[in-house]
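[audit] Reproducing an earlier prediction to check determinism. Same input, same settings, fresh worker. If the tokens differ from the archived copy the diff job will pick it up downstream; this log only records the rerun itself.
[audit] input (122 residues):
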Amino acid sequence: MAERWVRAGWAVVLLTLPGHLLRAGGGGPVPATAVAVARALGLRHLAQAALSAGPTTVRLGALADTVHAGSCVGFALGSPRWRRVALADALIETGFAAAGLRSGWSRGPGTPRRGTSSRRRR
């Protein structure tokens, strides 16, 4: 549950302050396309926060976060100017992916509750 609020907060930051974030990491003037990409990612995070209700959607979201983190690493390798921004985003996405995987599996069917054993008591 907390992961959804953190993700929603990050979405709001991306939607409202993309230029500030990009200037801090990339320096110099920020192209309009970079601002548009940051806002699109903010929309994705906002939608993901809203739709991550069950274990299946949380796991699919973690998969999306993992793919996004990988693409950030690839982008960092090919773009020296945006390397810091891309690597920072890769770390954030990796954190969201880890939280989603942990949450998605702990809520999955057949997973015993914390403090209980999956073995039957005699």
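[audit] rerun output stored. Observation attached for the diff report: The chain has a mean pLDDT of 86.
[audit] end
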